[in-house]
């Protein structure tokens, strides 16, 4: 059990995976995921007990806390996608935890009130029920209108109820490159057109927004002839209802040759500097042999050159722990 310097016992985050994180203000919110003791039934009071709390990490104090929420949290708790806009965090899809029960619901958590609202229930509509994909807030045009009010959901694994001709559905729709846009003003899903070098069916990749209407995808498990981990970067831009894609592979951009090996289940964020282009930070994951990767890479999004960051891992031994009084 961790203790503060004043001796108070700190709340500690449980071990979990396939969870979500989003930063709003000075707080990182962590919700969902697979964890020990999780009730994986469709819906139950026990499951609601678990889904009705959210872990919050205060970036200023460095302390975790568990916060109660109210309203309607999603049932898809594993591999759900999330993204913040202003004080809200939006959650799409996810795997329920039992059988092939995937969701295509869209829920919103207001971080000021910690109240959940279901914007779209799970249903048989044009959007594939899925998990392990990605979601970002995105706009069209220059961005002079303020925060984008559209959510772009891409890729993932699940069950399709409707096949759109511009997308691929492999292994009985288990993996897809489907893309869906939800307009928060109209409350409607839009199925966009695609052009350029669209990514193949994929899951467990990273996705980040790099400008108002542009984003970047990296890595993941793809079906590109065979089911494997990839080292490719995909850039995309939304214009009206069309998403244009560009693929970057090792050797396709003039840089010093540094390029991270293929990986999936990694984590990422974007650093926005005042005088530099947005920089993708990519960390961890597993490689093509399912081995854990302990690497951190930076990718600036002007020339697309990679920098490998040296990481120093501090290991605490028994004697060091005993000196803290634990
Ligand atoms: Zn279910």
TrEMBL record:
Provenance organism: Amphimedon queenslandica
Annotated protein name in UniProt: Uncharacterized protein
One Pfam family, short name: Kelch_KLHDC2_KLHL20_DRC7
Keyword terms, alphabetized: Kelch repeat, Repeat
InterPro entries: Kelch-typ_b-propeller
Superkingdom of origin: Eukaryota
């Amino acid at each position: 059990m961790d203790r503060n310097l004043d001796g108070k016992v700190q709340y500690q985050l449980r071990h979990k995976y396939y969870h979500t994180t989003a930063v709003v203000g000075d707080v990182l919110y962590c919700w969902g995921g697979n964890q020990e003791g999780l009730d994986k039934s469709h819906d139950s009071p026990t499951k609601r007990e678990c889904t009705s709390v959210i872990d919050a990490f205060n970036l200023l104090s460095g302390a975790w806390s568990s916060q109660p929420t109210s309203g309607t949290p999603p049932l898809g708790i594993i591999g759900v996608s999330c993204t913040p806009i202003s004080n809200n965090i939006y959650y799409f899809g996810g795997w329920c935890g039992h059988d092939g029960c995937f969701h295509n619901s869209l829920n919103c958590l207001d971080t000021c009130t910690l109240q959940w609202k279901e914007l779209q229930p799970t249903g048989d509509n044009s959007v594939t029920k899925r998990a392990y994909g990605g979601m970002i807030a995105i706009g069209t045009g220059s961005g002079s209108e303020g925060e984008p009010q559209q959510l772009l959901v891409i890729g993932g694994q699940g069950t399709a109820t409707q096949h759109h001709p511009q997308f691929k559905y492999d292994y009985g729709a288990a993996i897809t490159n489907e893309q869906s846009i939800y307009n928060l003003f109209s409350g409607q899903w839009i199925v966009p057109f695609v052009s350029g070098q669209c990514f193949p069916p994929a899951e467990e990749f990273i996705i980040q927004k790099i400008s108002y209407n542009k984003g970047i995808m990296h890595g993941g498990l793809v079906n590109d002839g065979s089911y494997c981990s990839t080292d490719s970067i995909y850039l995309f831009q939304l214009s009206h209802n069309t998403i244009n894609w560009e693929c970057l592979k090792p050797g396709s951009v003039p840089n010093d040759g540094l390029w991270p090996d293929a990986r999936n289940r990694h984590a990422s964020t974007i650093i926005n500097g005042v005088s530099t282009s947005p920089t993708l930070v990519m960390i961890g994951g597993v490689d093509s042999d399912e081995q854990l990767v302990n690497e951190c890479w930076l990718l600036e999004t002007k020339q697309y050159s990679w920098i490998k960051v040296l990481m120093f891992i501090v290991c605490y031994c028994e004697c060091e722990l005993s000196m803290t009084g634990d």
